Amino acid sequence: MRGDYQQLVDEISAALGAPATLEDRDFGLIAFGAHEGEDDEVMDPVRTRSILQRRSSAAVRAWFEAFGIARATTPLRIPPDPAAGVFRGRICLPVRHRGVVHGYVWLLDDGHLTDLALGGHGTPPDPRIAQAMETAARIGALLADEARAGSELGDLLRELLTGPATGRPAAATALRDALRDTLRFTPGLPLALVAVTPWDTSDTDAAPLPSLPGLLAACALRSPGGPTGPPGPPVLAALVRLRATGGAAPARTVAEHLLRSPRAGSAPATAAPSGPGGSRSSARSAPPRPGAAGIGGATREPAELPTSWQEALAAARAARAEPRLGPVAQWDTIGSYRMLTALPVTDPDPVIGPLLTPAHAELARTAEVFLDCAGQASRTAQALGIHRQTLYYRLGRVEKLTGLDLDDGEHRLLLHMALKVARL
C-alpha cells in the first residue's frame, strides 16, 4: 500500500517538474518525491524537517491551515512565511474522497510554477494541474480504503477492550482473524497496547493510521472517571506488534510518534488539582498540559489485551502525574503507581488538605521529596537545593499543618500515599 503512494507521488512530481510531498491530514509524512535540483537554496527547511521528523511543526500547520486547506476542493497557492519557517511558496493539492479530506500533496514552488493556472472562478486549470488532481483523487481513494480497514480493526479492538467479559473470547477471535486477513498478521507474536491521553476526537471522520512499524489498530475510548463524576477525557488505544524476541521498543516508538500528533495534549485543567501544591481554584488558570502515553505488558493472546490496556492506562496516568516518569511510561517501571492507579478515584485525603493550597505548595513539594528520598535529610536538601536547617524547619511546619509525626512509619506512609494520589 505504501509503495502505491510513493508511485503516485512520483507521478505528480514528474508531471509538474517539482518535488512533491504527501502528508495525511494530521500532517504526518506518507511519501515524498525525489528532489532533482542541484541548487541547495531550493531545498526548503520545512520540507527537509517533514522528511526527517515525519511530521510538520505546529507553526507550519497553523500557517497552512489558515488558508482553508481542510475545506478546499481545488488547488491552493500558499505564500511563504519566514516567521513560521516557510521560506518557499507551495501549491497544495487537497487529497479528498467522497467529500472527506484525507491528506495533502505539497508541491515546492522554486519559481517555475508561479504562472501555473490552478483553475477556479470559471477558468480551467493547466492540464498538468488537472492531471495531478486526478492522481490526488486516486491517492484519496487509497487513503479512504485504508481508513475503512483501520476503522474496522479499531471497532473490533474497541469491542474487545470495552465489551462484557463474557464476550471477550469471541471478540478476541474476531480481532485475531481480522488482523490475519487484513494485515497478514501471524498469530502468536507478542502484542502490547499503548494508551495516549488525552486524545482529541472532535474530528470524527475516519483517518488512516500513520505508517509506523508494528502499529496494527487504534481506537479512541472514553477514559474512566470517578465513581460519581463524569467520564474522563478521550484516550487513544493503539495496538502494537512487538518483535518476536520481546522488548517494548516498537511500542515506545509508536507512543512517541503519536504524542507528536496535534490530536495529543489537552486544554487547561478546569477541575482537579494538578498535583501536591495545586488546588481546584488555582487549576482553572493552569496552562495546557502535554499529553502522556503508557505501555501495557506484552501478551501473545488477544483475549489478554484488556489487561494490557488497563496497565497502559495506569502507566499513562502515572506519566502525566509524575513528570520524571514521562512522557512515555511502561507499566513495569512506574513503581508504586501500579498500586495507586488501581485505587478508586476520590477526593484527596483530608490529612493533606492544608498542603494542597497554593500558599503551602513548597511545603507539599518538600514533604514529597523527603519521602521519595526515604527520609534522608542530606539527599533531600541536595535535591531541593536548600540548607538542612531550612529542610527541618519546613518539615516541622508540615507536621503542624497535618498533625502527622514524620518519625512514625505509618504516618510517613499515609502522607506519601496521599501526596502521590493527589497527583493522580
TrEMBL record:
Q: What is the lineage of its organism?
A: Bacteria, Bacillati, Actinomycetota, Actinomycetes, Kitasatosporales
Descriptive protein name: Helix-turn-helix domain-containing protein
Instruction: Please report the organism this UniProt entry assigns to the protein.
Output: Streptomyces endophytica
Q: PucR C-terminal helix-turn-helix domain: which residues?
A: 363-421
Provide ranges: composition bias, Low complexity.
Answer: 261-286
A Pfam family hit: HTH_30
| Stretch list, region Disordered | 259-306
What SUPFAM superfamilies does the annotation carry?
Answer: Homeodomain-like
